[in-house]
Fold this sequence. Notes:
This protein is an alpha+beta fold. The protein has helices spanning 4-7, 9-33, 38-55, 59-65, 73-105, 112-118, 120-191, 193-214, 221-239, 264-273, 315-328, and strands at residues 219-220, 243-249, 257-258, 282-291, 294-302, 333-339, 342-350. The radius of gyration is 38 Å and the shape is rod-shaped. The two termini are 44 Å apart.
Amino acid sequence: MVHPILASRERLNLYLLAWNPIALLLALFLALGAGLPWVQSVALALPLALVYAFVCLSGWYISREMPRTPADLVRLLGAHTAAASLSSLLWLALGRLIAHALESVSGVFTGVEAGMVGQWPLLFVVGVLLYLLASAVQYTILATDASRLAERRALEMQVHAREAELRALRAQIDPHFLFNSLHSISALTGSDPQGARRMALLLGDFLRDSLRVGGRERIPLGEELRLLRQFLEIEHVRFGDRLRVRWAVADDTASCELPPLLLQPLVENAVTHGIAHLLDGGEILIRAEKRGGRLHLGVENPCDPDRPRRRGAGVGLENVRRRLETAFGSDAAAQSAEHDGGFTVDLVMPCSL
């Protein structure tokens, strides 16, 4: 597995940049402790710091494999101390080779190797401390990467959960409508064969178009209303003049996007639980307007206060609420109310284009 510092050029540059002051302190130590001239101290300290910067990267592999729990703290410190001691000894051996090479290049560096060997005990301690410091930095990187990975996975799980919930809600809505439509066609077969045939054709067109948009996350309101008109044509075959529709849709709302087939279950409820129970039928009002950058939708229908209450009558409305919450969170709301022989559902959501 590639070291995270080596895998990122930006991290590598920052890591090496952090070793610059360490190299200057090392040069100061050699100049004062070993009595080397500044030119010799800097010439020896820079390659020593660079080499040890890469040697210290080995601590990441120990950090990655060793557990970081309080119960294993002693074991962890022992492993890092042993690795730091071995790395420091390796560093001193490499440092002697570097000093010998400098003396071979020019007489200016005569005495560099002897000066360094004289400071081996202190340099060994410095090497151990630097290794442990580098390991602590790499632990921080490991913790940061683990935190980011956990956040990304949590976000991915949240997205997958939302997608799964949307698929489940659509799966509940579509069969519900299909069952009602097929039941209506069956009822018309005996009394109005032509109407049943026309309704079957309209249903086929509606299902084809709804399947086409059902896989999309959002569709424009204009397309949603076109599907709604198709649905109402299907219901009009069954109810005739008992079903009347009034549209109060502002022109500037057509491009606002919303989850597909969001209004269909509301209008279906208006027909099934409103118009169907009234002898003379009634008018369904469908509203759409923009206010303050938000889309306001409404479905109103008359209803019989004494109608029989059927189980599961609120499934469509509840699904709409949950789809709004899944799609927009707290930025959307759905409210319903029954009063004075009428039923109203109001939806509010951001008008995203």
